[in-house]
User: Which sequence fits this backbone?
């Protein structure tokens, strides 16, 4: 799609007025990708007349080397540190100079998802009347997140990508992107992703959601900024966090045989409390529910896809992790099967180096990194499209 | 141990005054097994100067045929219906006329555990000053529950048992009983029990406990009778309940492929809400925490046992269930190993007929029932001890 001319120059623009960035110290840039003249029509049929996207970029764009990284449920655009003095990114293990997604070689873009609370429009954002969306924010689908990513790239002047890569919910965005716009990238890489939640996944999400909603401080989502269902959200996070860790990993950290100030059985409650408190300080409850709902509704293969009808078949790599009780091996097998039915043969890498579980998707895993690195390098380079554009580190 | 004479006649006594039975419509009988003259000294060193036990009996005692059934975490003394018109028991699949634990043949005793809230002394019971124990109820160990069961049997005039049987936390009581008093029964049967919680078990318990404690209505445990942390306790129950069910079982009930008024993805939230609400209506939060804590502290093989020093080695059957993510196969393997180190060879039955998970421990499983039935029948019958006593159905 083409964007209104008024939006295009936003690349490398200074930060927008503070009201648009309520509590986000670490957004590098913000770009408006939908406004009244070009609203974003969601899958649900609802429209958003204003969508701002918080994004970060790494490396320089040469017209052929763009890699879009899609983030997991509660991460943000800060996929990697912008140098030694910067705060850590959520996927420093994979993205950076000399890393698998080498920012000396690739132009990396990462954006906070639609419905998130780290800069991109979501329940904490102002509506047209200046009040926060809160619980009235429309239902968002994974496909809507992808549509916003695509608008961002259009505005940045990035056409076809070398790759779209993402772990966990990021992997679901990768799959949706492949199904909706297979011509958008040479390669698609989903790490520990899913095409559809299992009944078990949904059940845990239901308990998490219930814990948030039944917290008296939730007030139907109408809590004041900075307030909200702290204990319910902390419980929800603890539940989620435990499903990210494998039983062997928990035993290694908290089993009877280990001891230390932060290990062994006595460390469990403080550890989980800390996970809960840390999360509550950085995440908004309405946004959390919006994203959980998006995952619950996600069913990648339920709708028709153009995938079987495009002449150029992209390369697809699906990676699953041992001990992953969130989106384990069978989720990648299911994705591969669905793609095969649409004429695309996906490679499936099952990581055996770790048994740390879903959490390992963003950890340092040399075997997985090597596989992804080789996959990205083997992909045919895009022809230069003459839209070379230099971007400084954001 | 011998009980004070004043306690013995309580057998078949009428129900005690209402204050001792605050909200329990279905206690059959109540017996005082500790009083000021014979207090119960807990493992922690604390003493209880009054312990009442709610129990039910089935069948007739002939001096040789007593079977004690230990109940899981949140069950009670009502192990089976007392006839066609009675409300269902929690283990009707196993206990009753013609069933595996055949009440036409065995004299079955089941008692609510110490610390529970279904009639036996626990946090909802009155202290000496008439006020409820509440959060001040002493820490209870599995060994304390067993000691109370033993006092109950003494008071009932039951000496050596034919068998002690129990699923889940009941299985842990069985193991503790075996370690503390191996001469008490000819056979010990633990179904889906554990000698010690895994790190994963403890983590889920920690989240459940946190949900209860952080509910504003918990008030440090000082809530009024009938009030309390409803939403936190419901969340805790949902968490527990999900760990009792296997992934395949959840998929069978709530997967995409199934539909119906009570199945498929849309049924998940109502189902879990119902599980939570049902539990909150019947269980006390302080009691729940007391029992969770007992399980967390339980470590059967950490203390010396007389087991290796008794001449007569009882028969031990350990059963584990496929898909059990609470106390699965490895828990029974661990119990068998610990017993082997103490000179007792336990039989281990791994049930493959179901993959319903931990919950299946109290369901109808013909293969498991047959194995337990054969095991009970093969055990040497006790010599008649002349203490025959007839009990009517309670």
Assistant:
């Amino acid at each position: 799609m083409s964007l209104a001319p008024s939006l295009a120059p936003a690349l490398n623009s200074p930060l927008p007025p503070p009201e648009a960035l309520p509590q986000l110290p670490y957004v590098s840039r913000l770009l408006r990708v939908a406004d009244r003249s070009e609203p974003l029509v969601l899958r649900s049929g609802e429209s958003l007349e204003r969508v701002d996207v918080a994004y970060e970029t790494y490396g320089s764009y040469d017209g052929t080397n763009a890699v879009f990284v899609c983030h997991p449920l509660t991460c943000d655009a800060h996929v990697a540190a912008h140098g030694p003095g910067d705060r850590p990114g959520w996927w420093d293990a994979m993205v950076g100079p000399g890393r698998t997604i080498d920012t000396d070689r690739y132009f990396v873009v990462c954006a906070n998802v639609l419905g998130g609370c780290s800069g991109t429009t979501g329940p904490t954002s102002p509506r047209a009347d200046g009040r926060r969306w809160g619980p009235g924010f429309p239902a968002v689908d994974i496909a809507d997140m992808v549509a916003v990513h695509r608008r961002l790239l259009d505005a940045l002047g990035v056409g076809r990508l070398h790759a779209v890569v993402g772990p966990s919910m990021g992997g679901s965005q990768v799959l949706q992107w492949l199904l909706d716009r297979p011509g958008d990238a040479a390669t698609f890489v989903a790490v520990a992703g899913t095409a559809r939640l299992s009944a078990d996944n949904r059940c845990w999400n239901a308990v998490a959601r219930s814990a948030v909603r039944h917290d008296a401080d939730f007030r139907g989502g109408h809590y004041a900024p900075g307030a909200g269902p702290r204990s319910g959200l902390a419980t929800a996070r603890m539940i989620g966090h435990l499903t990210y860790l494998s039983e062997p990993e928990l035993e290694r950290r908290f089993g009877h045989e280990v001891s230390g100030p932060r290990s062994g059985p006595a460390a469990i409650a403080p550890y989980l409390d800390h996970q809960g408190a840390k999360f509550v300080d950085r995440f908004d409850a309405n946004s959390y529910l919006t994203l959980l709902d998006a995952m619950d509704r996600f069913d990648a293969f339920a709708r028709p896809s153009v995938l079987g009808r495009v002449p150029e078949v992209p390369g697809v790599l699906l990676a699953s992790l041992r001990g992953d009780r969130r989106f384990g091996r069978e989720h990648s097998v299911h994705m591969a099967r669905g793609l095969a039915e649409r004429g695309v043969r996906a490679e499936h890498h099952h990581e055996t180096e770790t048994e740390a579980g879903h959490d390992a998707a963003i950890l340092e895993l040399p075997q997985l990194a090597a596989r992804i690195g080789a996959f990205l390098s083997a992909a045919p380079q895009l022809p230069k499209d003459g839209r070379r554009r230099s971007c400084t580190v954001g």
About this structure: The first strand of chain B starts at residue 29 and ends at 34. The first helix of chain B runs from residue 142 to 156. Residues 114 and 267 of chain B are 36 Å apart (CA to CA). Residues 200-296 of chain B form a domain with the Rna Polymerase Sigma Factor; Chain: A fold (CATH 1.10.1740.110).
